[in-house]
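Before the break, one more example. Copy the sequence into your notebook; we will annotate it together after we see the structure.
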Amino acid sequence: MSDITTINPTTGEEIKNYDYMSTDEVNKIVNASHNAFLEWRKVSHEERGRAIKSIGDKLMEYKEELSKL
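Here is what the structure looks like once it is written out:
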């Protein structure tokens, strides 16, 4: 049984159900995120900028589809 349900506020329709995570699962995710940050901060500003611009370009490429979400 799911513990969290997201609901479309306009229609009242259930969107998705999620189970609560255990403390161990949460800690693994937090640690993985922290480790990713420690690696990301070693990347030069120029390289980070290229990566972020690339993400922006993809978002713009799919803006119509994304706006419908």
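Strands lie at 4-7, 14-18. Helices lie at 23-40, 45-61, 63-68. Try to locate both features in your own notes.
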